[in-house]
Fold these 2 entries.
Entry 1:
Amino acid sequence: MTSSTQPSAHYDAVVIGAGFAGLYMLHRLRGLGMRTRVFEAGDGIGGTWFWNCYPGARCDVDSMQYCYSWSDELQREWQWTERYPTRNEILRYVHHVAERFDLNRDISLNARVIAGRWLTDAGTWQIDIERGPTVSARFLITATGCLSESRVPAIKGLEQFKGQTYHTGRWPKIPVSFAGKRVGVMGTGSSGIQAIPEIAREARELVVFQRTPNFSIPAWNGPIDPAHKQHWMANYPFLRERARNTRSGILYDYGTRSGVSMTPAERQEEMDSRWRKGGANFVHAFNDTFVNPESNQFLADYVRDKIRQTVKNPATAHKLLPHDHPIGTKRICVDSGYFEAFNRPNVTLVDLRNDPITGFEEHAVLTQSSRHELDAMVFATGYDAVTGALERLNLRGETGQSLREIWKDGPTSYLGLMTAGFPNLFTITGPGSPSILTNVIVSIEQHVDWIADCLQHMQANQLERIEPQPAAQDRWVAKVQEIATGTLFVKANSWYMGANIPGKPRVFLPFIGGFSTYVAICRDVVSKGYEGFTFSALASKPSCS
Ligand code: NA7
């Protein structure tokens, strides 16, 4: 594009989003001496953890691993208190980091990016801020998160509903009380499964509207085990490096045997011991959980048995049994008393597959067979994952087309880092990278470091423009789909597949070949002179690397 308005400020780099990705990116860019501004839509930093303050919001990755590894002092000084950190504790950590590294002064809050245009002649991005200035930058880096574009389904009559409505990913910052109220929760993914036990304790009545029953593993959360903490504190760099060499960037106990190769007694012992430990590690019992339907079935049956044992009403238990996807192919949930909540007299489960919602009235939600009077409705209905937040930015590349237009049949990206036709635009944890299949902080750090190293390379070589070559991008997009097709993941109607958004193309969004494999590929690309990327100095024509 060539048209432009006069920007009010020019930066070397603009970063969109002040969550874990944006904060670390800012830190690295400063280290390169680049004049950088971070624009954040929210009125606070923390990204996903700023918005997700619903009751029970908690991370399901071990707190000793769910933190930055780029500063050894930082990881030694911060004291986590629970096995799985609450949202509030994570947010305190984020603020600690921002203050310790003096990041806040380069962050603009309440500053939503609503459009961006690549100006070919100037070699800059021009960026519009809602109710704010237009600025320009040589490099534009998105740190908008994979699960940030929240979504409330279109339901007939919802606008007439007079009760309060909430989305878990846009929870108000003022206290919300459900005491004495009749509350509905729609959605039984991770957010619903965390919120339901908490709301059940507080509300007069809780009606859970379930479309798809989900697998969940008990968290057995509690104060952090001092020996575990001590072990991590004493060995942080070594353990972090080991984690980076795994497929999910998390130091789990990865099973080394196929489920089918074990005797029934061995399998039972393996699953029992993992269940006793709790957490997402359960699904890693076998080395073929995600590729062998038989092995997967052992784990799925085990969890279904646990649900039957936990939920006292057999009809309710039956409705809660996951049946339409292999375990783990929708993001595995980790809960604290989810299935137990259905034993409470004030909790009702509505199975929307048999009894769909027909609409809302002023004070009720109607299903085909009944009417539920409600004072509040909580939507735990998820996100337009991975691509939603990027498309919403309305970024237009060299031809004037937007990412949304270019991605209408599925996202195109090279390594999940850049898209052809969008020079100097980097996408942290973009589509086609491991991102949300991993400890996302580990993936964020790897992307931020890769981008910073690339910019340093460009500085050193007086290069001002970078973009991926279409052929390299095509190969990568094909590879991402090919690897996914070899797994059970493609069998589930999950947000990994874009299946939760009506009309979204059905393609597998992240790279599922494993974090360590992905890192090796990225390193290889660099060692071959940034193979598949094209660099140029602005004055010259682009030349292939
Ligand atoms: P998820 O995992 O996308 O869960 C959303 C839930 O909402 C899921 O149970 C959906 O059922 C349900 N849903 C979505 N649309 C509808 C409609 N129209 N009617 C009824 N039910 C619906 O989002 P979460 O926020 O729980 O978790 C997102 C990630 O955040 C999580 O994986 C962690 O990584 C953290 P469906 O299964 O689509 O039938």
Entry 2:
Amino acid sequence: MTTENHQERVSVLGLGAMGGALAEALMRAGHPTTVWNRSAGKADALAARGATAAATARDAVRAGPVVIVCLLDHASVHEVLDPLAGELAGRTVVNVTTTSPAQSRELAAWAERSGVTYLDGGIMAVPQMIGKPGSSVLYSGAADAFHQYKPLLDTWGTSTYHGEDAGMASLYDLALLAGMYVMFAGFLHGAAMVAPAGVSASEFAAMAAPWLRAMTGAFEEYAAVIDGGDYAVAGQQSLVFSSLDDILDASTGQGVSTEVVAAVQGLIQRQIDAGHGHEGFARIIESLRHPA
Ligand code: NDP
């Protein structure tokens, strides 16, 4: 990391909860930072601490070689960037707005046509985590831009690069979020089950957190089975043994919806019906790979 890189001029478009946190981290690291937000007021606190508040997105873009974009969604990114293609030509856009892989690739193609260097980012953190341990951001797209600006990007958390395909960062981001949301739904299902027994959600959380943490150890075992391609490898719990009927019965008994657990039971049952009941739990990835 050179001093020059540390002091790279940078512009941030979008000062919502996340964009504001990103700009703040850049300023803390000593980067001369120009900020812009569509509606007034959100730049004031940053300007009071030394950021340059640009009156327009165009002015912000003109302020430096690298433009961080953290807006609501794909449509808002186009709405802001399209009229600025001329100014952006020759500059680098790092777009950390959440978009689908297809939208990221579309933006990368738009950038290429406009002579803009494009790096897509997926933020694996909430605003309060930015710049702190545990925060990570996934990138894909222009490799040179990633390496050139890595010291700047590292001010937000651990930066990792996932290849020239601009859609990859988003794909990993959304795949990781899929795991998170389903896990959260599973936790909430459990909390709903014990609630009628007078157990508070906080009490249940204290039990569920260490249990689920311990269970993540199984990911690598399942992954080895999937990558090895033999779901019948010895030493696994079989699908017939993994029936979730007891959980479904207990849920119904507690007056709780079975939607979350029934979805998993459906994935298991399809493999049993296809004659794979003696194989291990990892086999249900085949139900996911081949939608019913
Ligand atoms: P906010 O809702 O707090 O901010 C949205 C920002 O987008 C505001 O600056 C808003 O401007 C701007 N905006 C929306 N529409 C337009 C438009 N048409 N033209 C110009 N500006 C527009 O969201 P966050 O800051 O939390 O999130 C920003 C991005 O970061 C999202 O894509 C989100 O998915 C992603 N992200 C957020 C995380 C989080 O925990 N917050 C975690 C990981 C990723 P205005 O103030 O004028 O409304």
